[in-house]
């Protein structure tokens, strides 16, 4: 019975005795028991678990590395700030250059022409001095040649004056002509035949031989002029344009004042009678505005009785 009580007491006190022995052993070995869950004991507990405090030399190496990183970041920041200042200055300069007003249209055209001249000079054919074209910019003083609209004799005479004033040779003359050739027919003639002519005179004569109207074309234009009539309600400007175009074909190389009598023959009777009762006009350029004024006055009057009867009869015939 006594032995049973002793064994039970020993069994009951054995776990508590082991715990007290462990605490006593830790205290005797110089280490304190620390609860790592407490913030105040976390660092010391970590040191105990890792086997002791960190090496001062290793800490110094880490400190030096961090300082080097900070210095590098400071240098990068300074470089970025310097680059930002440079970009800001460039932006300010660009805005100052754009601030003045844009050049006027003539100035822009002149700049474009200069650029075109420089481009053409880089691709200029042999024996062509493109610098001569800077002093002789024919584009600003004459129009391009249009077959059927321009008198070839008059146009070529003006063109040749510009060529001689610019002291151009035959190749430079051809280059200049290409800039003023308009229409497929003119360009094809230039591309196929220009290389044959070795002098300016030969080139000029070849142009006139090609684009002067033939005898058949002149006779056809004369017939069309005889049939051309301005009506009291007609468009005067369109009538003048058609008349002058047919005159260029019917009578090439004619003087402008020689057009006055043929033009008076294209007017309707009342207008022709009114203009012929006035003092004779000596210049075609002054005759046209006067005829236009009288034509407008006739339109304001309206058709006369005989004209109204003729219109009524024509309308009746149309109904039938």
From TrEMBL:
It comes from the Eukaryota. Residues 63-97 form a coiled coil. Residues 97-129, 298-320 are annotated as: Disordered. Residues 97-124 have a biased composition (Low complexity). Residues 1-30 form the signal peptide. The keyword Signal applies. This is Retrotransposon gag domain-containing protein. It comes from Chromera velia CCMP2878. The lineage of its organism: Eukaryota, Sar, Alveolata, Colpodellida, Chromeraceae.
